[in-house]
Design brief:
By secondary structure, this protein is mainly alpha-helical. 88% of the residues lie in helices and 0% in strands. Helix 2 runs antiparallel to helix 3.
Length: 102
């Protein structure tokens, strides 16, 4: 029982020491740490965006093909596919949401 109380006291002391270190941290150091992550974050999010767009385009082709196979004419299938693909236009959707929120 005394061992656990001793460990708890040590862990509490360690936590308070870490909290004080965090409070005394240099803002320039934090800014530098955050800035260093931005390039990798941009590359990763850019790659995810391009994968999303490629998958949406592939899905649109499959969607159109299935509509035609089910008996719809090409013009109607193309129009429905265009509506289907509107949901994958993230940048346009974000701009529209931004303009609505103003």
């Amino acid at each position: 029982m005394s061992m656990t109380k001793k460990k708890d006291k040590n862990s509490d002391a360690d936590m308070s020491k870490k909290n004080k270190e965090m409070e005394n941290a240099d803002p320039v150091k934090w800014f530098g740490m955050i800035i260093s992550f931005i390039p990798s974050l941009l590359v990763k999010s850019g790659g995810a965006f391009l994968r999303f767009k490629r998958q949406a385009k592939k899905g649109g082709k499959i969607f159109k093909k299935e509509l035609i196979n089910q008996g719809l004419d090409r013009k109607t299938a193309s129009e429905l596919t265009e509506i289907y693909l509107k949901g994958s236009r993230l940048i346009q959707s974000m701009i529209k949401i931004r303009s609505i929120s103003k």
